Amino acid sequence: MHTTRLQTRFFLCYFFAVFIPIMLMSSVLYYNHNAQQNRNFTNEKKISMITEQSYLENQLDSCRNYYNQLKSNYELMLLLNGFYNSEREIVYSYNRQIYSLLSGIYLYDANLNGIQIYTHNASLFNILKPFSPLSSLDLSEKQYLQLTEGFWHANQSTDDTYSFYISFANALMTNSFSVAEFNYNFNIFDSYASNLSDSSIYVYLNDRLIHQCNPNQYSSEYLKQYEQLILSTPNDSVRMYDNNGLCIISSIPLQNGAFRIVKVEPVSTGTLFHRSFILNALISGLILIIASILMFLLIFKPLKNIVKLSEHINQQNTHLLAPYTGKVTKDETGDLIRDFNQMTKRINDLSNSLLNHEIQITATWLNHQPCWWSG
Q1: Below-50 pLDDT ranges, the chain
Q2: What is the number of other CB atoms lying within 10 angstroms of the CB of residue 132?
Q3: pTM over 0.90
Q4: Which tens digits make up the pLDDT trace of 299-342?
Q5: Is residue 175 within 8 Å of 81, Cβ to Cβ?
Q6: Conformational region of residue 249, where left means phi above 0, alpha means psi within -120 to 50, and beta covers everything else
Q7: What pLDDT score does 244 carry?
Q8: pLDDT value of residue 321
């Protein structure tokens, strides 16, 4: 059966009135759903990073707790101020309180490599191992100015450790100037990275890379694209620099911006949005199927009957018309078919009546004509 112009118009109407609007609606819903998922995913990641930031801050803040313990130790303040003169008094004072305090700190904190106290008191650093001459402390003028509040510094050593430096300030002993160094290893960051085996962790201190956890070539090259942007961005809050590609790269500031923990986390686009795409495709397909069935039942089937009726009429080539024997629906199309069949019956009756009348006239005329053999 060939396609009529009426059917062509129907399919065009169906395409522009049903198919395209449903596809557009589906695209809008999919975009909005993905955007919402992306926002939720970003918020969840930021909340997770804030939790990680709090955990790492607590680990690094331990140095200030240890500093406060040392600062509040009266015997240590007496030693630093030179209150004890003899070697016996110095060793006795150290063994009585300070040694147990330092031993307890080392015992319960595996992140700490050691505590060193720099002082002018030669009697201390010549006798006791935890003390060193202040002259051996190689700091810049800017760093000396930061000693009151304390600062973090990456050590240029084989192990590439990092330390927190802070001076002792005591109003009762203003003549003494001592600096405490808390030397840390990277257990804090290695322990943090052990729970993120799929992520590459890069630790920056004062904008210098000092440690890497779970690095790989792909994440390192991905980091290069954003490293300058990250280092030039104010380090005042957790940030996500890219969460639309195959990786999420984020930055977690620590210790008032001294540290930057840069995390490169691989993310599969399918993992994020595959379920959304499947759900959207199923909903759109279901709506399209339902709309198509309704269009077929409400319009196409009656239209098909009209097309068949038209074809049936075009096939009539005799003086008698054949009635349409197809399905008669209970709508205007059915009324049209019934009217056509009634018209066909009336036309056929008229044709038969006219034919019979002509036959009668012909027979009467023949009966009244004289025969040629009669006289």
Answers
A1: 1, 171-174, 270-271, 374-375
A2: 17
A3: no
A4: 766 677 777 777 777 777 776 777 877 777 777 777 887 887 88
A5: yes
A6: beta
A7: 59
A8: 76
Which tokens hold the place of 66? 């240890």
Q: Which two tokens stand for residue 265?
A: 């986390």
Token pair for 14: 């169906």
The one-letter amino acid at 39: R
